[in-house]
Design goal:
Length: about 280
Amino acid sequence: MAENFYKYESLGNDFILIDYFYKDADFLKEKLNDPVWKNFVIDSCNRHFGIGADGVLVLKKDISGNYPELLIFNSDGSQAETCLNGLRCAALHLREYHDINKIFTFKMGKKLINCTINKNIITTKISGLVYSGSRQITLNNKSEFHGHVVSVGNPHFIITKKVTPDWVEKYGKFIESHELFLNKTNVEFVWPNFYQNKNTKSISNYNVLVYERGVGPTLSCGSGASAICWFLYKTRKIVTSQKITLNFLGGYIICWVDKNEFVNLQAKARLVFKGQI
C-alpha cells in the first residue's frame, strides 16, 4: 500500500514526514508496533534505494488531543526522544497544511515546546535541559577526549575541539558508542569562529560538527544546538539573552537563553518535495 510522504530539511538535516495528524490511536498503535515499520524507516531513509533522509517524522495528535505531537525515528530504525530540526520541519508543515496558529505548543517526548512561525523561520523555546558536568574518555587506550554531558531529553557529549569532517566520519562512532554512554550519545565538536569583542573575548560565533546517535555524521543537529547553548550558559561563557550563532555544515542557527532559562533556537525549514512510496 502506498504511503504519502513529505520530504523536509532544516539546516541540511533532512526528514521524511508522515502525516497521521487525523488518524486515531488504534491505527497508530497497530501501524507503529508492526515489525514492518522499522524496515519501512530503514528502507525509506536509504539514499540509494529509498527517498533518502536522516530520519522519519510521524506527526500526530497527543493522547489528550490538545497538542500536535511528533515522533522521531532515526535512519537505523531506532526511535529518538528529541529532534529540534525535525520539530522545525513539522511546525512548518502544520502551518502550511493544517493552518495552525503562528504561535502554538508542540509535544515531543515528555516536553512541551513553544513554537513561533514567521514565514519559514521558526523559533522554538525549550526548557528542562540538564548539564551534568565534564567527563574524560579514552579511545583505543590512547586518544583522550574531554567533553561535557548535557541532556535535552536525549544525550549529548560536547567536545570543545576543532576537527575535520573526515575525522568525524572515521572516529565519531567510537565516541557515540563509548562505554560511558549506556544508550549511546550524540556528539558535537565546537570551537570559536571569531571574537566579537577582542577586549572581553566574548565569543558570539562558533563552528560545529556533528555525529548523530543512530545516524552518523549529519549536516546539523537542533537538539545539539540547544545542548551547546545550555553548556555555554552553565559554564558562564555566555550570559542571559546573549545571542550566539552556531555554524553547522548545513547552515547556521541563532540561539540564546532567556531570563526564564528557556533555550531559544531560531532557524529556517523548507519543504523539498512530496510524493508516495
